[in-house]
Design goal:
With about 300 residues, the protein is α/β, with parallel strands linked by helices. About 45% of the residues lie in helices and about 10% in strands. The chain starts with a strand and ends in a 10-residue tail after the last helix. The structure holds adenosine-5'-triphosphate. The site of adenosine-5'-triphosphate has 15 residues, from helix 2 and strand 6.
């Protein structure tokens, strides 16, 4: 039996041949080899294990408090679409007692963000969650298209990322929400660890591997429930659950250095799947030496 993952610009279809029973239920045929640990599972067991792992991450790290309102940073892409679906499902299943709002930032990138926001609007209907959209134009009086036309495409990802993080905080504050949850996954985090090491910027490792962060001076907490979730598994889950997501690359393409780190990670993952989580763990465990005081 063979399985082809859905087409995706980052995760090319991976064919897996399995002709055994599922290692968990021992009754249904194994349909996939889990990218994370190569266990052979049927579709139902994979989805349940994946959901349970996210629930365990949420509980172990005490991510949510009962009665809390949380904003899901919703871009319409695979990660945040699965995140919105997952948090709604787990909140209902385990009674976290949280209120979920979809929060989208319109950076003003014609032909990209306008299309992905159309997906978020459909998700709003599908999941029955409230949606709030804030735009760079309203918050800063500039769209990303206008910024690029003046400053050029170089470093556009950096500007966009800084403004987007700030916009998520400002949007959440306007809604009276102090917790923003994003779909950053294990692959994103491992890439960031690699980039920081390659730049010699080890001081950033602690923050880049934290599951909960907060910018200095900001009342808004941010968390990443997919910290340990592999991108391939998120795409697989979205495919099995038939989730409606947008999968086109941004017009301004990914930052060149991140693109290189991503390619490198994919090559490493092909020979050693655990390297994604291993790199995150290395980032967590690498601590800065206390500086000697000069006399
Ligand atoms: N325009 C946006 N509005 C709201 N949240 C956003 C937006 N862009 C990104 N985010 C949040 O930041 C996370 C990481 O964004 P990134 O740009 O790295 O995209 P990604 O890894 O492709 O994620 P996704 O598949 O959700 O788009 C997203 O999962 C989402 O939670």
């Amino acid at each position: 039996m063979s399985f082809a993952a859905p087409s995706d610009p980052v995760n090319r279809p991976t064919k897996v041949k399995v002709s055994q029973l599922c290692e968990l239920c021992h009754s249904r045929k194994a349909l996939i080899k889990r990218p994370k640990n190569l266990s052979k599972l049927c579709k139902q067991c994979f989805c349940l294990v994946f959901e349970t792992e996210i629930h365990n991450t949420i509980v172990t790290n005490s991510l949510f408090q009962r009665g809390e309102r949380i904003a899901v940073g919703a871009s319409g892409g695979k990660d945040s679409t699965v995140l919105a679906h997952m948090l709604k499902l787990l909140n209902d299943r385990h009674d976290y007692g949280i209120e979920i709002v979809l929060l989208s930032i319109d950076e003003g990138i014609v032909g990209y963000r306008d299309d992905s926001l159309a997906t978020v609007k459909r998700n709003q209907q599908q999941y029955g969650l409230p949606l709030e959209i804030f735009s760079f134009k309203d918050l800063y009086d500039w769209t990303m298209d206008e910024i690029v036309s003046v400053a050029g495409i170089r470093n556009s990802c950096t500007y966009c990322g800084v403004f987007r993080r700030q916009s998520l905080d400002r949007g959440a504050a306007k809604l009276g929400i102090s917790h923003v949850v994003t779909g950053h996954n294990a692959d994103d985090m491992a890439e960031t660890v690699l980039m920081n090491i390659l730049r010699g910027d080890v001081a950033r490792l602690e923050k880049s591997t934290a599951i909960i962060t907060q910018s200095s001076g900001s009342p808004i907490k941010r968390s990443k429930p997919f910290k340990y979730s592999y991108q391939k598994e998120i795409v697989l889950y979205a495919h099995y659950m038939k989730l409606d997501y947008f999968s086109t690359e941004c017009t301004y393409a990914p930052e060149a250095f991140r693109g290189t780190a991503r390619e490198y990670m994919k090559n490493l993952e092909a020979v050693r799947p655990s390297c994604i989580v291993d790199i995150i763990q290395s980032g967590e465990n690498l601590a800065l030496k206390a500086k000697k005081i000069e006399r």
